[in-house]
């Protein structure tokens, strides 16, 4: 399997996960609003919707990272000479990786501290399941960032446009 093939499969995986999460969130909110409107509010729906929104945000961030859609200021990096662009590129990736590794590590530590706790309204749902999104999405984010390295290096350091990259015209 090639890197591009793996990246396409990974992208499809994230898209399916996000699609399922969005549909589940929409259904949850519609059911909750319908029950509330009928005078029989569900006590659990807003807590579950909050968790779903957080999960959607974390997994969506990993997908945005894969697509290079996070906020950045590439024009500043591109204004430096090639040698400094390389240094800043490596430094920026190291900072990102350090942050994500710390997030995954401390996310895991949180899981060990909250063993036995449950959601307030659904006592059969463990908090470890709810909070597992932090270390899992951090690892997915690391994978996304790693898969982006060749594209980011090409566009930010070598200043190759997307058109040149896809057509192979690097002159």
Structure report:
With 171 residues, the protein is mainly α. The chain has one domain. The protein is 77% helix and 0% strand. The protein is built from 7 helices and no strands. It is elongated and about 65 Å long. The relative contact order is 0.12. The mean pLDDT is 92.
Low-pLDDT stretches are none
Instruction: Provide the succession of SSEs.
Output: HHHHHHH
Share of β-strand residues: under 5%
| Radius of gyration using CA atoms only | 20 Å
| Measured distance between first and last alpha carbons | 29 Å
Explain the layout of strands and helices.
Layout: H1 3-37, H2 45-67, H3 74-78, H4 82-113, H5 127-131, H6 133-157, H7 162-167
Helix pairs in contact: 1-2, 2-6, 4-6
Structure summarized in a few sentences:
With 171 residues, the chain is an all-alpha fold. The protein has helices at residues 3-37, 45-67, 74-78, 82-113, 127-131, 133-157, 162-167.
